[in-house]
Design brief:
5-stranded antiparallel sheet, 3-stranded antiparallel sheet, Aminoglycoside 3'-phosphotransferase, Chain: A, domain 2, Phosphorylase Kinase, domain 1, alpha+beta, 293 residues
Length: 293
């Protein structure tokens, strides 16, 4: 990878790339040049994950113009170079301590991003993703193929719990590590899964990825929607948290078949997310029972 970085035509002299930790599917490096620091990310299209790099790059550029993301200064097939943000990468604890500003950031992203996008529109609907992952896993003879019918049945149950909501443009990967704090403001990075959706997946993803309590979830919903959420919204959010965890587990199962990122144990990541799903689903069913078909 270093050789590919050395020959990029944007440097003013020799550079020394350094690996950047983090990321479950891409390789990233930091580079210093002319007194500035940059992130060089390598990634290709992953049709099995619905990742199309041209969309990713377009969204990253739009997010910078809209004021959410660092500037993209160079792209070529499989490569994106952006300005490095010198700040703290959020942890789950940081997310839980910043519910109000993150709800505000999320709502601005949802409402402002459509004004800066270009080209054909594209959607992210987690329940479609889960169904398609099940097909991919069956075709790939996944070790988890015996569980797939149950996963799809669960997904359809969780989808039935979703009320109609306005269409927004979602980030759809609100992991703590995709939120940066430079001491003055918050930034968002990594737009591989961004697309038109409802707000509920981002709201649920933020909560499930940061281990929110029921009270913290209601605080998030109240801040986002501008008032105490109704029971249908609270239930939908709890159901979508289960869907978010199921999707993350199945993402890892598909990655077991198709990806090989250095230092990433996809089998362990699958088990981790299935364990979290079991806890969330038990809590959901205890409160709401099973949504009838």
């Amino acid at each position: 990878m270093n050789a590919r970085i050395w020959v990029l035509p944007i440097w003013t002299g020799p550079v020394e790339p350094k690996p950047l930790k983090g990321g479950l599917s891409n390789r990233s490096y930091t580079v210093r040049d002319s007194g500035r620091k940059f992130v060089v990310r390598f990634g290709q299209d992953y049709p099995f994950h619905h990742v199309i790099r041209s969309r990713d790059i377009m969204t990253a550029k739009a997010a910078h113009v809209a004021g959410f993301a660092p500037e993209v200064i160079y792209t070529s097939p499989g490569v994106m170079v952006s300005v490095f943000i010198d700040g703290k990468t959020f942890t789950a604890e940081d997310v839980r301590a910043n519910i109000a500003p993150l709800a505000d950031l999320m709502k601005r992203f949802h409402t402002e991003m459509p004004h800066h996008l270009s080209g054909p529109g594209f959607a992210f609907w987690v329940f479609h993703v889960i169904r398609d992952y099940a097909r991919t896993l069956r075709e790939g003879a996944s070790r988890m193929r015996g569980e797939l019918s149950g996963y799809v049945e669960l997904s359809e149950e969780l989808e039935r719990a979703q009320p109609p909501l306005p269409i927004v443009f979602g980030h759809n990967d609100f992991l703590p590590a995709n939120i940066l704090d430079d001491g003055t403001r918050l930034w968002l990075i990594d737009f591989e899964y961004a697309g038109f959706s409802t707000a509920m997946f981002d709201l649920a993803g933020l909560a499930s990825n940061a281990g929110f309590s029921a009270e913290q979830s209601e605080e998030l919903l109240a801040r986002y929607f501008g008032g105490k959420p109704g029971p249908d919204i609270v239930r939908a959010h709890a159901a979508m948290q289960c869907a978010s965890l199921l999707r993350e587990a199945m993402w890892s199962m598909v990655s077991e078949l198709h990806l090989n990122a250095p230092g990433v144990d996809y089998v362990a990541y699958t088990a981790e997310n299935l364990a979290r799903l079991e806890v969330a689903l038990d809590n959901y069913r205890t409160i709401y029972g099973k949504t009838p078909s």
